[in-house]
Amino acid sequence: MLYVDNAATSWPKPPGVVEAMVHFMEKVGANPGRSAHHLSVEAGRIVYNAREAVAELLNAPDPMRVVFGYNATEALNLALRGLLRPGNHVVTSSMEHNSVMRPLRALERQGVGVTVVRCSPQGFLDPPDVETAIKPNSKMIVLNHASNVVGTILPIAEVGEISRRYNLLLLVDAAQTAGAYPIDVEADKIDLLAFTGHKSLLGPMGIGGLYIGERVKLREFEPLKRGGTGSRSELEEQPDFLPDMCESGTPNVVGIAGLLAGVRFVLERGVDEIRRHEVELTQRLIEGLSAIPGVTVHGGHGAQRQTATISFNIKGLSPSEVGLRLDEEYGILCRVGLHCAPAAHKTIGTFPAGTVRFGLGVFNTLEEVETALEAIRQLAQEA
Ligand SMILES: Cc1ncc(COP(=O)(O)O)c(C=O)c1O
């Protein structure tokens, strides 16, 4: 079996992730930040260590500004619904995932202005187009760091400069890049960053979060939920400090323990080394696919300007036919269709049928890429 669906969820996980989760369940198991006994303290330590590890990965100065939640979708909803009000305007791109588009469309119905800047058919965004879209009532720019359809990396640092010049907040959806591509929230002038644990951070599903930078005014921030936090329990009002303000209810510490082990693996191997490996695989896959008659590779400009997510189509075969045959005849597991990003497919010209998507990961090898290429060669020949 060959798993190339890492852009949906990474698999397998590195050594230590399952063990950390089992260790928590068997040996710790208590509620963090609630009780004073030693197991509760130990659970709290795991949660803090995970905040610290994520902060280190993002070069975020304060781990307490890393807020945990369910996934990137929840984090994006928290940032968008927490900060945008009727009358505000937001700029985004046409390469966004529905976890940005759907909350924005709902906010639009409530009176938030939304401008979607069109990207090129390769999925690239021209920063001056973002600047042109800014209005006097603009409050935020929200941008995918890398497309989950064609992997193209968006110019976050340039947009960060623009956002500061106009005193806007920059929210980055790093679902596809955290752990796979270098991120520096300070250098790139990122104010809010949504991450998910189950992709390149190599942790389990059900854990993700939001980094909330210093420029975000907490007085203006509405949490998605309110409730018990284990802090300021004498008050009936929600605490007004991070992370408690945005973390009500018992957290997923099993997931956080797994996330901590995943992020530690990433830190130990090094994002630069992971990136080097994934660029090598991506380069070979793009080169091999491009040489097969009848295969169209979407996106463009090469492996250096994208993540290890590659979309293609085979002439004469629908993406779903390709996906099914790869699974049943070759044991190759990928993802086909629209990848929850219809706007991105409209941008690159593959809507509504979509594409076949290979999401390579840290544990894939060049030999596996060759195996996948041979399978595509055979399918294309028969089509
Ligand atoms: C670009 C992008 N944003 C957001 C998400 C949502 O992530 P999650 O499903 O973990 O909430 C994904 C997941 O596929 C994604 O690829």
What does this structure look like?
The protein has 383 residues and is of the alpha/beta class. It has 2 domains: 2-10 and 270-382, Aspartate Aminotransferase, domain 1; 17-269, Type I PLP-dependent aspartate aminotransferase-like (Major domain) (Aspartate Aminotransferase, domain 2, 3-Layer(aba) Sandwich), CATH 3.40.640. The chain contains 11 helices and 13 strands. A 7-stranded mixed β-sheet has the order 2-8-7-6-5-3-4, with helices on both faces. A 4-stranded antiparallel β-sheet has the order 9-10-13-12, with helices on one face. Strands 1-11 form a two-stranded parallel sheet. Helix 1 (17-28) runs antiparallel to helix 7 (253-269), helix 2 (38-58) crosses helix 7 (253-269) and helix 3 (72-83) runs parallel beside helix 4 (98-109). The longest helix is centred in the N-terminal third of the chain and has 21 residues, at 38-58. It is globular.
